[in-house]
Design goal:
2 copies of one chain form a homodimer. The first copy, chain A, is an alpha/beta fold. In chain A, a hairpin with a 2-residue loop joins strand 8 (270-281) and strand 9 (284-295). In chain A, helix 9 (186-197) packs across helix 10. Chain A has helices at 12-23, 25-32, 57-65, 86-92, 112-121, 131-147, 156-159, 165-171, 186-197, 202-211, 220-223, 226-239, 259-267, 329-345; strands at 2-8, 35-43, 47-50, 97-100, 125-128, 152-153, 177-183, 270-281, 284-295, 308-314, 318-324. Strand 11 of chain A pairs antiparallel with strand 11 of chain B.
Chain lengths: 346, 346
């Protein structure tokens, strides 16, 4: 079956998705019966391209790889590259699935939330890697999707393509999830790993993370725990049935942890990790982000470097832990694809 | 939607499944739209019960819990409890899903394979926790299922209900899996853990595993690696596209590992684990079961006690590791349910 895809946002994640669609075309068709026709791409920096007959993915990747905009797409008509706002693109395109991949604004969740609602109101499934709408408006958007007989899927918002929501809804379906506990931020885990295994101070470890591209120039969102906070709110509301806001969750990062703290923990056989933790108990869901000293026997203690992991406490299966990449161009592009494939299967 | 289930084998796994169906009836109906009517149960030790209108699950569990046979089912007619062979039960029942849960015979895979083929030939989906048919005849049975438009599902054959096949076919769909490496036998992992963390010798650690019910009176299948061998053959053939036989796979267990070996490894910062490993390379799939000394940074090194874990090497997501229970009444009963729910979703 062929699906018509519209991409809103075509930065790292969008290009990661396009690369996979280009490279795995035959495999996806032959093994899963899945074919994709990309009918629209729009990006505030790169312009707009709407071609209902299908966009040449390799040509787009070539353009963007050379730093060009979508307006330079070969033989494009003026109408095909008319500069349009995301909302207009969603309105006009005949895509049946919108992949929303714009930047996260965790305070307003805009313009992503408006894009998503517009897509659902015009009959399109939505898949997104954007934490904003999922953290701030999950229930409302999910209700809108259901009312319209559509899917709203968010695999990429927590551990990139390492499957969390797929795991809960397929392999673990039938379980009640009571608690989740995870390492959801690769940057801070990388820093803590370097401090412990190489005896680095916090400052140099952060500088190394920045040099290697794990941390941004302004590392606040990572090191103060705000990225993990948004993710634990999403997990609380989607997996535990909570209705938490980001302001409901106490949050402490790792910027005050010293080499001495880490060494003292190590001497006790413990290891510092930035832990996002949420629990459903007595009808209430609570969550917290904080550095924790874990015994080495905890499945999360062995998660080193920029990896992510999540333990789910379930009623039938006990504790199930999944570990994998938590970021990356291909990994987050795959997260989007995995949600598109879930729409395809239904 | 209501499914009609037939249970072939009603020992620990079957009773685990029935308990979940009894306890989660409302939850499964309300959240997943799933309802089950058990229409047939047969077990070589406990007798046969065929009631197309539906069997009272609580009454059956009560009988079996009191050591009674199915013939004593309240108000059963002679026809409903007529002693029948599994093949006859499968022939006669109008179940749309057969749960095959008889004991594993890894040499012949019988009578399970005959039961499964009979079910597929009479229009019934099959779910099983039996390693025999999956290890010896996976491809042949899967072809038969496809030819008849039916499903043959085997989640419970490798890590009980810890999802391996669900993970590969939903969350990781689109990836090519190149290699799998796992701790697939909880008994040996329990023994190695006790030897390392409590300084026990092999003999006393094995005796403790037997006392706690992890190891059988004859522990050969576990400690010599044969259980892990059957599982790695299944993984090779299902996930890597191989066509291995059990005799193709070199297999060494843990019975010759001494406390001194473990201490020497520990001094090098390494940890002994019984590793099942399979790889697809240059068109060929190979596998091996052997004790390996892992660096502590390996996600499998931190898997302690009777837990199982599997790392999948994928082309898009890199290494994904899942850890959880690898055995147990509820856990394996849930594995069967998870496959039934997969049939329900499609």
């Amino acid at each position: 079956m062929e699906h018509r895809l519209g991409l809103i946002g075509c930065g790292t994640v969008g290009q990661g998705l396009l690369e996979i669609l280009r490279d795995k075309k035959d495999l996806l068709r032959d093994t899963l019966g899945f074919e994709a026709r990309v009918v629209a791409i729009t990006d505030t920096l790169k312009g707009t391209l709407i071609i209902p007959e299908g966009i040449d993915i390799a040509a787009v990747l070539d353009l963007l790889g050379r730093g060009k905009g979508l307006a330079e797409y070969p033989k494009a008509t003026a109408a095909q590259v008319e500069p349009l706002d995301g909302l207009d693109v969603i309105e006009r395109t005949d895509a049946d699935i919108i992949a929303e991949m714009t930047y996260t604004d965790i305070k307003t969740a805009e313009p992503a939330t408006s894009y998503i609602k517009k897509a659902l109101r015009t009959g399109k499934h939505v898949v997104t890697s954007n934490k904003g709408p999922a953290a701030l408006h999950y229930r409302e958007i999910q209700d809108l999707a259901r009312k319209n007989g559509l899917q709203f899927r968010i695999e990429g918002t927590v551990m990139s393509g390492t499957p969390v929501f797929h795991l809960a809804e397929s392999g673990l379906a039938g379980n009640r999830i009571r608690e989740v506990k995870g390492i959801l931020n690769g940057t801070t885990n990388f820093i803590l790993t370097k401090m412990e295994t190489e005896g680095m101070d916090y400052g140099p470890a952060l500088a190394l993370a920045q040099k290697l591209g794990y941390a941004e120039a302004d590392p606040t969102a990572d090191v103060e725990g705000f990225d993990a906070l948004a993710k634990v709110v999403i997990l609380s509301n989607v997996l535990l049935g909570g209705s938490l806001k980001t302001t409901d969750v106490p949050c402490k990062g790792i910027s005050s942890i010293t080499k001495a703290d880490i060494e003292a923990a190590k001497a006790q056989g413990l290891r510092f990790k930035l832990i996002a933790h949420a629990k459903a108990e007595g009808g209430a869901v609570t969550a917290i982000v904080s550095p924790q000293k874990l015994p080495l026997s905890d499945p999360l203690a062995g998660v080193m470097g920029a990896q992510n992991a999540l333990s789910l406490e379930t009623d039938l299966m006990g504790k199930i832990t999944i570990q994998g990449a938590g970021a990356g161009k291909t990994e987050t592009g795959f997260a989007i694809l995995s949600d598109i494939l879930a729409v395809h299967r239904c």
